[in-house]
Amino acid sequence: MILGSLAAALPFYPVNDFGPAMKGMVIGGLGIFHVFLAQFAIGGGLLLCYFQWLGQTGREPHARRFLDGYFKILVLISFVIGALTGVGMWFTTIQVSARTIGVMVDEFHWIWAIEWTFFCLEVAAGYTFLRWGDRLPDRIRLRLLIAYAFAAWMSLFWINGILAWQLTPGGWLDGGGVWAGFFNPSFWPSLLYRTVVAMALAALAAAIVINTMGDLAREDKRRLIVRAAHFLAPMALMAPLGLWYLAVIPADSRSWLLGGSIAMTMFVGIAAGASLLIGGYAAVGLLMQRLYINGATATLLLALAFGATGAGEFVREGARKPFTVRGYLYSNSLTPDEVATLRRTGSVVDDPYPLRDAARYPTAQLQTGAKVYRLQCSVCHTMHGANALTDLAGTWTDAQLRMNIAELQHTKPFMPPFAGDAAEVEAIAQLIRWETAGAPRRWPDTTGDAATLRQIAAWLDEAGTAPGGAPRPAPAAPAAPEAP
Ligand code: HEC
Questions:
Q1: Which of 283, 298, 329 finishes a domain?
Q2: Which of 164, 195, 217, 481 has the highest Cβ tally under 10 A?
Q3: DSSP structural state of residue 382
Q4: The whole model's pTM is what?
């Protein structure tokens, strides 16, 4: 395991900083886009199998025409944009959290290898179909499409285990090994949920494509759309699957989704509300009344689904805080064990990497603060942009600032405990003050203020090094009176 050694606690090379966008947001934003496309590709594969079957069994005369048009779009999206954003995910994760992706590769390399094998199969089957599909007999076409759909779904199967493991590592934490980590508590609910979402996205995209088939009579289009809408029916399972998921995630994550963090609660509401609207429209309009759905409506519904996917992914990523691998690796790439050590040694004394703009800081203390910020906070905060520290804490008094940083995991339980010594707390407190003041050329250095450092050290001790979501120990009971 790569995390055991203390050498790993050395700060990772700070590859990039993204200006006003916090690092977590960069990876989250790309992730949402990628997940949406990838899930569309999976649902699309299943939908193609269905339409090939409808066509070759004579159930639907225009199935074949639709299928060939839809396939081109699917290939374009899943092979080109899906693959590009997929590579983009690796490219951003190594910049934002090299250590997290390192652990994921280290623990699950065979699973990744299996996933890539399926991806290759998906590409090979898809490309064969694209190139020779129109010349092949129906029997072979169906087999190719089944191979394509199966491979696409299997790549979800393997990736899903790794992603779910990040939030609920389950028995892996107690040494259960790769399979305990892979088939973790949220594996099944999230796999099934994502499958339902994938099918719904495919159906909505199909409604758009069918509308573009100009030479078909309206009645023919309506029939195709109603067929595609069958893929919306599994949405009825979203509520029970969502509840199942909520039931297996850690209690503190659940409490944030259900009111504890209003931003996350609102996103849960948006995801649930948007899904309900799409599902309701599908149930009443398409399946019961057999309405025609025009291109504009279908596009709006798909946009709504994009919103729901985005909100859902935001919630899933947010619920994992303050960890990227729950109980094992904090979002800022430090482990719980290391926090205790770094409290004694300081976290940036050995940080060899220069600051991007070191001359900007008038004192050595502020430079230390900037390194502490870069190492411990910058994955979730910026100084002046998204979730900016100057906005959050700019109005605080000195004492408030020092105490809330020293007791970071209790200030907000979705932050990791502060992983440095009292001097580093003071350095970052001064940095926030200085940045809030507009980065003046002169600034007092408080390094020698022993009374302040003593007070901060007491706060650090009071906070302890356990994560904030853990139950607080009861205060010591007063000594029992002597028996008379
Ligand atoms: C895992 C992500 C994460 C990390 C790492 C993190 N924070 Fe935060 N922090 C948050 C979030 C989320 C909030 C809540 C923002 C809000 O309430 O709008 C927050 C809030 C704050 C606040 C305001 C608290 C309040 O009660 O209003 C301060 C101050 C703060 N963080 C400082 C820091 C400092 C200093 C560090 C680094 C030593 C740090 N944070 C590291 C996620 C993080």
A1: 329
A2: 164
A3: B
A4: 0.91
